[in-house]
Each structure stands twice: as C-alpha cells, then as structure tokens.
C-alpha cells in the first residue's frame, strides 16, 4: 500500500511563509498529476495547486502570486511554498497524486495563520 506523507505545516503569523512537502512511501509509476488541496473548518475541500508531469502548473485564484508548487528531485515528491499567508489560508492541506489507475491522498498537515 502506498502512503503519502505531508509535512511542514504549523502556526504562522499573517504575512509569514511556510513550505509544505509531500512524499510517497514507495515509488508510484506514471503519475499524471500531483497537487495540493485544502479544507477549512466547515467548508468543502478545494483545489490549491496542481503540477503535471511536464511541469505545467495551475493555481486557485485565491493563492496566485503567493503560492508556488514544484516537484522535488526524489520521485513522487512535491512541495508547496506559501508566502504572504493570510488568516483565510488556515486549513488542513492534503497532498494528492493521481493517474487513471489510482488516486492517493495524504493524511493532511495543519496550517494555521493567526496573530
């Protein structure tokens, strides 16, 4: 069984930065899309950012210009650099890795933006 593990969450003041990372317990072949999603209390899970095998990225309008998704050197590793954080960014952030044959999710890492 493949497990995705997120790390890097925590408590940060508004305007601060965090870097999230996600890695797989075992290599996953033919990943088409890697992404980050988040879920705030009382709200539905929403897309934050995705990156394709060829490096094309997509971002939610709410994070454009502030967040950057990237792939790491290790296989099935993805990062999310979050700058200029706002209280509205507070949520549990989930890593996702997808292909037509599978859809893996991590357990999530908490990000709290507060003074």
Provide a descriptive summary of the structure in words.
The strands form two sheets. Strands 2, 4, 5, 6, 9, 10 and 11 form a seven-stranded mixed beta sheet that branches. The protein has a four-stranded antiparallel beta sheet with strand order 1-3-8-7, with no helix packed on it. The radius of gyration is 13 Å and the shape is globular. The protein contains no helices and eleven strands. Helix content is 0%, strand content 51%. A hairpin with a 4-residue loop joins β5 and β6. It is mainly beta and 115 residues long.
Topology:
Blueprint: E1 4-7, E2 10-12, E3 18-24, E4 33-39, E5 46-52, E6 57-59, E7 67-71, E8 78-82, E9 91-99, E10 102-105, E11 109-113
Parallel strand pairs: 2-11
Antiparallel strand pairs: 1-3, 3-8, 4-5, 4-9, 5-6, 7-8, 9-10, 9-11
Concise overview:
The chain is an all-beta fold.
Highlighted features:
51% strand; seven-stranded mixed β-sheet; single chain; mainly beta; 0% helix; four-stranded antiparallel β-sheet
